[in-house]
Amino acid sequence: MNPPGSASAPASLAKAEHQWSLDGLRGLAAISVVLAHFAAIFYPSTVFGNSYAEHGSWESWFYHSPLIVLIHGELAVCIFFVMSGYVLTFRDLQSAQVSRPRLVLNILKRPLRLGGMVLATVILSFLLRWFDLYQNGAVSQLTGSAPYAGKMLTFAPEVSKLLQDISFNLFSSGSIYSPPLWSIRDELWGSWVVFGVLLLARAPWQRWLLCLILIFVFRANHIQGMVLGMMLGGLSHTAFFKKHLGRPWLALVLLGVACLFCCYPFYLRKYSPDSFAQTLFADWPKLSKLAGSWCMVAALMLVGLLLRWSQVLPRRLQSVCKWLGNLSFALYAVHFIVLASLTSHLYLYLRLQMNLSHHAAASGAFATTIPVLLGLSWLLWRWVDVPFIHLSQKTSQWLAARYQQRVERSERAKLATQA
Question: Using an 8 Å Cβ cutoff, are 24 and 320 in contact?
């Protein structure tokens, strides 16, 4: 991934300059999803409004306040998709000539890159279900989140079905084993879409036209975010992006507007229309054809501002951001099944056996879960994500070598024929 700097800047320098800031944003988005699902299970009204049970008067205030951004899963997902569209295509958009063989290799290796974490999560979830360790159903009866959490992770632990899912439809069935994995399925399809745009459209104007068409084709689908991220990558090369977005006053205004959009209560609008009608967003256009509504607009603005202004961030944050970025994929993939098993078990024990209040049991269970979840995410990153990254790279290099050998044989045969 290259930054929105000079077109002549070396790719390695560009990557070193900006990758860590995007890692930090991705890590914060993953943490937001974790908090969102914890709230959805244990404090459902903070996410879904008054259509779900409340455990305190502060919850109504919370989902009407800007603090909703802390548990805004829809915003985080929109950020993931916009960033992916940018990262996957920025290097090619910066190049004067796109390497079609390399794009084909990227298409082929993408399932391998994403599949390792999905496979590990599916197997782990199956084992938890096999040993009957999921307690989200029992917890949902106490917390009032039964319409949401009570329906999750109720699949039958059949080995034959697991083998079939792993072998033939790993990505499409992943959300059965861990609900957040639906986005990895769309991430895979979206990556093929943006790579396809680069393959089919050679000129910039062709890419822009095709992207606009695809935004309509994938209306209300999060793949729109990846297409928008790709368009952001193209825009970041322009003088307009570098000059005008580089004006501090304009960047501050856009940041303020983006923060307002970040507070758009997407779930409140969907599940509690009465509560949504009491917010300042009640009369705003719904943007029903855009996935995430105003959250997608906010994600696009935030990523764009970060790309342009990441150089002003303190360098001492680099190690923290990189650490968050490393753990983000694993954290996102497995957090729900940890909340539904370990956190739920702890909550039930503290609530029913220790006779603690709901707030004490929920906070105690979550606080105990955090180090376990971080440790598990680190293990999955180290022993699953990193090896599959290397495997996808080795596979790509092997295919590239085979392709080069084939080209060389074809050229030698052609020269022999001419001789």
Answer: yes
The Cα–Cα gap between 116 and 385 comes to: 6
Output the six-digit token pair for 409. 């044989």
Taking each helix axis as running N to C, give the angle between helix 170-177 and helix 100-130, from 0 to 180 degrees, rounded to the nearest 10. 30
Find, among 316, 54, 250, 133, the residue nearest to 63 by Cα.
54
Nearest to 394 by CA among 129, 109, 163, 175: 109
Give 97's DSSP letter.
S
Nearest to 221 by CA among 121, 113, 90, 85: 85
- Tell me the C-alpha distance between 290 and 268, whole Å: 17
What's the pLDDT at 407? 76
| CA-closest candidate to residue 230, choices 265, 259, 192 | 192
Exposed / middle / buried, residue 199 (Cβ in 10 Å: 0-12, 13-18, 19+): middle
**What's the rounded Cα separation, in Å, for the pair 123 and 380?**
12
Q: What band does 412 get if pLDDT is binned at 50, 70 and 90?
A: confident
**Integer-rounded Cα radius of gyration of the chain:** 23
Tokens of 262: 């970040």
3-state SS string for 349-385: HHHHHCCCCHHHHHHHHHHHHHHHHHHHHHHHHHHHH
C-alpha 20/C-alpha 257 separation (Å) is 25
- Cα separation of 265 and 268, whole Å? 5
CB atoms within 10 A of CB 150: 16
**pLDDT tens track for 142-156:** 999 999 999 899 999
pTM: 0.92
Task: Tell me the two tokens of residue 1.
Answer: 């991934």
Cα–Cα dist 314/127, whole Å: 43
